[in-house]
Amino acid sequence: MAVEQPWKTELGCSQARVIFKDNPRKLDNLLIIDTTKLEKSLSSRALNDTRWISKFLLAGFEKLGTAECPLRVQPVNAALVGTLRWAWGLAGWKHDPKNRSKRQSDDRHHAIDAAIVATVDGRLVQRLTTAYQRAEERAEYFEASGFPPPWKMFREELLNRLYGDGAAQAKPSQFIPDSTIGTLVSRGERRRARGQMHKETIYSLTSVDGMTPGATRRVKVERKAVDEKLTVDDLLRIKDADRNYKLAKLLRGWIEQGHPSGKPPAWKYKLSDGTERYEPIRFVSLVTNDTPAISPRRLRRKEDGKEVAFAAFDRIEMVRIDVFENGDARADARYLFVPVYVHQTIDPEPPARAFTLRRPYEEWPQIGARDKFLFSLYKFSLIEVKRKQDKRRRQDDPPLLGYYRTLDTNDGRIKVTPQYSRDDQLIDRFSPTKISYIKKFTVDRLGRKFEVSREVRTWRGKACT
């Protein structure tokens, strides 16, 4: 795969040789034309590391034995496991029926491979090796279909234990998994708050009319390129419309002409020496309806002396959400969600505002004394969620046992994936006003879950109220 890079020109090569003259290895990597050789070396190095790690683990496991009772570990390669998977009728539960090169989104297929490895011994490996050699001598295609499973009902017992009763009688392509039955896939919570405090793009701010008469609010200003994607509707949001009406008129005429690329719109600038110059308009500032997420930079107004934000950044993903039980029994939502972002982890006090859809953060309601803290949800926290019964539907939705992913601030719903999968296409969404109950569980490495009735809220390693 050839990769085009700016230093492939003669000038670029000469500059690279000067900059990296003391680092010949870096220079060779920069001036490489075909990266196929480099990709092969990287993949072979990764495979070699895997082989050494496997040998190291094998030696460590064998040391667990004693002189009186030595422990012999039988290594099994992936090709042998794949052969037995096909021979015992389990391959359809690992690969996607529509695309054999793609794996199933259900992670429990790893348990199938583990069960096969657990049943393989030295005798079976020797029998398979001998059968393969005989087929190779006869120039025949080797099939392991004649090798019996470890016991008679091995396939049925394994599938029913992993996927629930009745799975062995169903086809993999027609089987509908249930998150509340079968083997539970154990995943670890992501509690660490690392990385960027906020996104890198800086947005300027401007004041617009607020929701109430006479009130104003600060919103973000975005820069949009003047190209074929610019529309007349965008010009209705131009910043300082009263002052920039000539600019809007110029851009409107250019758009109505069909965005001619050969004649970009140009603006006349007056220079300090009194001369004039026309420059093409590259970007235009448009007012959005988005309120500033993070505003670390502020200015003091001359009129009243108040500090107002003049720049803003977008937030990074949430570290966690704190779940409170609503103290107002008449409220539609039984639970209140308090998001905790990365940039808030350096604050001395924890956030105390419950998420409210389509409102700026300053207008989110404060958590009251009657609201009871239940627990904190991190990414991949195991929860069980059930929707309220819809009067328009006769059948009640079953509860979903899955792992919490995040709180979607666009619609106010939490995202949950079934416990057996991490596929984003299987994400289910739950609105706070439609949740009947939500439970949190801890899960150990063996897949045993234990309900968390209530936690103590902590902040920076200490308990808080």
Question: Secondary structure elements and their pairing?
Answer:
Blueprint: H1 10-19, H2 24-30, H3 36-62, H4 78-87, H5 109-119, H6 122-137, H7 154-163, E1 203-209, E2 216-225, H8 232-235, H9 245-256, E3 266-270, E4 276-280, E5 283-287, E6 298-300, E7 307-309, E8 311-312, E9 318-325, E10 335-341, E11 372-378, E12 382-387, E13 400-408, E14 413-418, E15 428-430, E16 435-443, E17 449-452, E18 458-459, E19 462-463
Antiparallel strand pairs: 1-2, 1-8, 2-5, 3-4, 6-7, 9-10, 9-11, 12-13, 12-16, 13-14, 14-15, 16-17, 18-19
Quick take:
The chain has 9 helices and 19 strands. By secondary structure, it is α+β, with helices and mostly antiparallel strands.
Question: What does this protein look like?
Answer:
- The protein has 465 residues and is α+β, with helices and mostly antiparallel strands.
- It has four domains: 6-43, no CATH class; 74-169, no CATH class; 203-311, no CATH class; 316-463, no CATH class.
- 23% of the residues lie in helices and 22% in strands.
- The chain has nine helices and 19 strands.
- It has helices at residues 10-19, 24-30, 36-62, 78-87, 109-119, 122-137, 154-163, 232-235, 245-256, and strands spanning 203-209, 216-225, 266-270, 276-280, 283-287, 298-300, 307-309, 311-312, 318-325, 335-341, 372-378, 382-387, 400-408, 413-418, 428-430, 435-443, 449-452, 458-459, 462-463.
- It has a six-stranded antiparallel β-sheet, with no helix packed on it.
- Helix 4 (78-87) packs across helix 5 (109-119).
- The longest helix is centred in the first third of the chain and has 27 residues, at 36-62.
- The chain is extended, with a radius of gyration of 31 Å.
- The two termini are 58 Å apart.
- The mean pLDDT is 84.
